[in-house]
Amino acid sequence: MKTKPGTEPRIKTVLNVDAEGKTNVEGIWAAGTIAGVSVHTIITAGDGAKVAINVISELNGERYVDHDLMK
Ligand SMILES: Cc1cc2nc3c(=O)[nH]c(=O)nc-3n(C[C@H](O)[C@H](O)[C@H](O)COP(=O)(O)OP(=O)(O)OC[C@H]3O[C@@H](n4cnc5c(N)ncnc54)[C@H](O)[C@@H]3O)c2cc1C
User: Fold this and answer.
1) pLDDT digits (tens, 9 = 90+) for 10-41
2) Mean pLDDT value across the chain
3) Which residue ranges make up each domain of the chain?
4) Predicted local confidence at residue 68, as pLDDT
């Protein structure tokens, strides 16, 4: 799996992911610290949510939202 040097304090190496969270290995996604985002709880959790939405969307074959539609 492709890696690159980390930019955050004490994070030596991270996975090389694209904007969606995909690694170079088919079917392997990454989020949070290992994906190189800023190491704060709210950011890593948000990144996990972002990548989860992308995984669900790819599995479903269409963009996923779980919002209720306004009527
Ligand atoms: C001492 C300390 C204090 C902190 N204080 C703050 C703070 O005050 N405010 C703040 O916003 N952030 C704080 N942080 C940062 C915050 O905790 C992290 O940014 C956040 O938890 C990262 O979430 P993550 O999901 O990316 O990684 P992690 O929470 O590290 O989750 C990775 C998970 O993967 C698991 N894992 C690892 N290897 C494997 C494997 N091979 N197979 C299966 N599972 C594996 C680990 O056990 C772990 O549960 C602090 C961090 C530390 C260490």
Assistant:
1) 999 999 999 999 999 999 999 999 999 999 99
2) 96
3) 3-60
4) 82
Q: Across the chain, how many H-helices and E-strands are there? A: 1, 2
Q: How far is CA 32 from the centre of its chain?
A: 6
Please name which of 70, 34, 26, 31 lies closest in space to residue 50, comparing C-alpha atoms.
31
In the reported structure, the alpha carbon of residue 10 is separated from the centroid of ligand 1 by a whole-number distance in angstroms of 12
* pLDDT surpasses 80 at 64: yes
- How many whole angstroms from 39 Cα to the centroid of ligand 1? 8
Residues with Cβ within 6 A of ligand 1? 32-33, 39-41, 44
Ligand 1 atom at shortest distance from the alpha carbon of 47: 26
Q: What is the mean pLDDT of residues 50-56?
A: 98
